[in-house]
Amino acid sequence: MFSFSKQGEICERLGLCSQVLVVRFFLQLKSTRLDPSLFSKDLHFDGVPVRVYYPKAPSAGLRRGFVFYHGGAGLAGSIDVYQDVSNKIAKDGDLVLVSVGYHLSPEYTYPTQYQECLTATVHFLQNAKAYGVDPSQIVIGGDSCGGSFATVVAQKLVGRPDLPKLRAQVLLYPACQAMDLNLPSYQQNSTIPLLYRHSVAYLGLKYIRKGTSLCDDVLKGSHVPDEMRLKYGKWVSADNIPERFKLRGYQQVPLAPYKPEVYQQLTELLEVTFSSLFAEDSVIRKLPETLIVSCEYDVLRDDSLLYKKRLEDNGVRLSWFHAENGYHGVLNTCDAGLLTFPTAIEILDKVVDFVKSL
């Protein structure tokens, strides 16, 4: 997905057009179609655009529900781009899937994206039976930033006793922290497509509508106050990464000296609604059963591993699949003809198996 980000960055620096427009243009070239075993409806859930996918085959009772948040750094992606993914989960899982078309940044500022995901999910939880869904059997999930939104939505919902509890969450290579971009996976996969280490900072700043001149400060960690380093260092640490994930090379790089003027411009990056790894134990331990998928050749791999450890340490029931040949954005090749990547199918099969096992 982000293989076009570098070309877009060049176009932006040349003054031709914005990077975001380049990425969106190439993504929209992807052709998708509705699976013939499904039908769909484009609706709005409390003002948020959604597409609801239903299996055509009759069901003896209420089905499971799945609310899916697509990836794209909060800047790109769409319901249409992710229709192949939605098709497979809805069809193979024999469930009702809601794909959320949250509005994108920079036209809609952060935190609109996760808030709209939350709004759509609350609506679905409250009205599940109207869509043929058992309200006690609703799963949320997404890939990349969509996985990040899922972590935030799940954390927000643990404080909502007025709603049915989520049955589970599915987190596919999410970003979970913006404190340390020098963890082993960031070093090992810094120049591996489709998401580069530099792009994590660049796109993150674009997402929250801040100047990209601060990229180097973010990459070095100068935006992190000393008190946050003390509080969150126990969770954001290479010591929490299993040794097998350091074999391809890792050299510890301490965070650069704190720059208050940088932090003051980038406070959003360290808020729990952006860095969900920073949620308190009292919230984490109430999270629903979880599937986490990590990819070996992904700069964000270690975010998944760190979040996995936090959930395990707090007694959350957890399943984990590590895609040894996976890379960031691989999910979008699940139905790409000759370019279909087997790992994408494998990941979606794991998602379906997990949901069916609940």
Percent helix range: 25-40%
Could you give the order of the helices and strands?
HHEEEHEHEHEHHHHHHEHEH
Mean pLDDT rating:
93
Binned strand content? 15-25%
Measured distance between first and last alpha carbons = 31 Å
Instruction: Please work out how many helical segments DSSP would assign.
Output: 13
Order of strands across the biggest sheet?
A: 1-2-4-3-5-6-7-8
Structural class: alpha/beta
Largest sheet: 8 strands, mixed
Task: Write a concise synopsis of the structure shown.
Helices cover 35% and strands 18% of the residues. The chain is α/β, with parallel strands linked by helices and 358 residues long.
Features:
358 residues; alpha/beta; eight-stranded mixed sheet; 13 helices; 8 strands; 35% helix; globular
Structure report:
The protein has 358 residues and is an alpha/beta fold. The chain has helices at 5-13, 19-28, 83-93, 112-126, 145-157, 184-188, 197-207, 215-220, 226-232, 260-265, 281-284, 301-313, 342-357, and strands at 38-45, 48-55, 63-69, 96-100, 133-143, 168-172, 289-297, 318-327. It has an eight-stranded mixed beta sheet with strand order 1-2-4-3-5-6-7-8, sandwiched between helices. The longest helix has 16 residues, at 342-357. It is globular. 48% of the residues are buried. The mean pLDDT is 93.
